[in-house]
Amino acid sequence: MSTRFSFKLEATDGRARTGTISMLRGDIQTPAFMPVGTAATVKAMKPEAVRATGADIILGNTYHLMLRPGAERVAMLGGLHNFMNWHRPILTDSGGYQVMSLSDLRKLTEDGVEFRSHIDGSKHMLTPERSMEIQRLLGSDIVMAFDECPRADRPRDEIAASMELSMRWAKRSRHGFDSGEEHAARSALFGIQQGALDADLRKISADKLIDIGFDGYAVGGLAVGEGQEAMFGVLDYAPEMLPVDRPRYLMGVGKPDDLVGGVERGIDMFDCVLPTRSGRNGQAFTWNGPLNLRNARHAEDTDPLDDRCECPTCSHYSRAYLHHLQKSGEILGAMLVTEHNLSFYQQLMQSMRRAIRDSRFAEFAADFRRHYLKN
User: Fold this and answer.
1) Is 147 a catalytic residue?
2) Would you identify the CATH topology of the domain 5-272?
């Protein structure tokens, strides 16, 4: 295990947990939401503005960065933190999910995945070892094991075979990560539980990962079209299959009510493109539910987006002005709504951490749903 990584569980309330992940580049308060910085940028945001929202950690994307500008080039330029001017922890995904989504451009073997770039058609090979090398070159603080992520609606035998392949790749990822001794000494490696919606396969996957040994564990293979009810059904049992003294990360989730439901079921970490993508498309998240700022009803509304929010957008700009920016296609509209959305997500995480410490999480969750889901 990494000597530069620790997780301290500080309070629980039911299955909800709050704690602190400590790393060389700073502490991460959990439950945590990680803004997605796919191509070394959180879209429409300066890094210092992302930090000002309360984010302790962001996510980078191995697949996109290996293609452009290239992991070796990022390393030559001082690593991802220096390259993008973000000097707190970064988690990088393994590239597996993006590669698997290239169904017409990839070939899967035991060794790894051969694929063609969606940018220029160039051919590449991504293996567990190469994924570890790329994440090492990027200088990632939390490295994700290389895995395959099939859709949950595939036949059970295909899901089982995919899970077993991911577990073999997890073991190779562990060896590949450990071979980079200098990087391994200052970073952490997370394994990824697979098995789709099948509890027996999830248990097999969890046991194999625990046997290999990781600093943290992700619940993978969800948020791929199965719907919230099915996702929560898996989260009713999957997190408890993983070690209680390690962070639990739900990948690619989600909507604000997904986050509350995930924390309720024992999840510690989340990431999703939704707050930034929605910000660019005129959707704002508020304590009273999402708003579509393109809607004409906002054209003369002088209220802020959310009167409970103190972010710069809510402090200085009206819904009417944000509506105007969105309808006009102005870049500032994307910037301001993205800043609000990321601030709202961090306020939500902070509120959940406080509720857990005060032993009133059930009350908080019920109150949140009453207001957020009322429309």
Assistant:
1) no
2) TIM Barrel (3.20.20)
